[in-house]
Fold this sequence. Notes:
It is built from 14 helices and 15 strands. It is α/β, with parallel strands linked by helices. A 7-stranded mixed beta sheet has the order 4-10-9-8-7-5-6, sandwiched between helices. Strands 11-12-15-14 form a 4-stranded antiparallel beta sheet, with helices on one face. Strands 1-3 form a two-stranded antiparallel sheet. The two termini are 36 Å apart.
Amino acid sequence: MTDFKRTQSLFNLPDGVIYLDGNSLGPLPVAVSERVHRMISEEWGKQLIGGWNSAGWMVQPRRIGDRIGRLIGAPGGTVVVGDTLSIKVYQALASALELNPSRRMVLTDNGNFPSDLYIAEGLLRTLDRGYTLRVVAPDDVEAAIDDTIAATMLTEVDYRTGRLHDMAALTQKAHSAGAITIWDLAHSAGAIPVDVLGAKADFAVGCTYKYLNAGPGAPAFIYVAPQHAENARPALSGWMGHQSPFAFDLDYRPGSGIERMRVGTPPVIAMAALDAALDVWDGVSMNDVRQASIALAELFIREVEARCQELKLASPRDGSKRGSQVSFRHDNGYAIMQALIARGVIGDFRAPDAIRFGFTPLYIGETEVRAAVDVIADVIANRRWDTAEYRKRALVT
């Protein structure tokens, strides 16, 4: 049984704040500051370039990848960390298309994170081989899978509403139609139980700055199924993905297995933060996290609907069909969220009208949920959002 009182003590949250935005950026784990300081002062500061060997910087991407793999059901040696999520989406899609060369259709849905669509559009345009990106509604994905599809590219949890795709069922349908599957786990890893191996996913990617709490701009990860490990050609054939980087060959030879999905030099300071953040998960059961998250979200929904009838639920009501976030709609959602943030309840806004709240039992409990609803009810009932200050849009919403 996971001790959530213990995990709450592992985070550094400001006084007077109820943080319901871990689905956008996880809070700071206490151990991260010391670990990063030690990396800078003891490793970089004293070992200098020798740290690549003596401090293990060179093998961080694979070692930390295995730690993330435990949280997503991936066997050892199938996950590597580095670069950004956009790059990992590019890598996965490019490799998937080469594994299915006779087809020209990529299927996605309009609940996918827009950045993934931008990456896909750019790649397909660059390839210039008649590829089409087909975008359907989330509920229409299963019916749209047929023998014209080269690859499905889906985010498991809809960033706007929290709607949850059935990874196993859709992967099975895709495989029966001869398609390759790519799953974006940005809103899944650390939020819900994931089993990429059991679901037979071909590729999976994800970020580490949301539910894995590794900090803004933290490196992303990519998973490649074992059966593709030696066949997936890395479109971005970077130095770190070479079979022998320090042979300095002029010709590229891909590394073995998941190593070939490395691209650039590892961001060692950011990796140190991620490594320390993952310590929080030692002794944590993802099933316990899931059950507690659903309970908190259901409490939140009940209380908000009872007290704030202007807000309309945008997320699935059934917790088993939802990730670890809840969204409500309101025409003045942006101003409402700014008023909440000013009063210490931090969620976020997604255009055109959704206010989002994430429920992470590692550091949020029933007391915080009830206190948050008190603030929301006050803001709505007394129209405390209705000021010019709260309507002014910031760069980040």
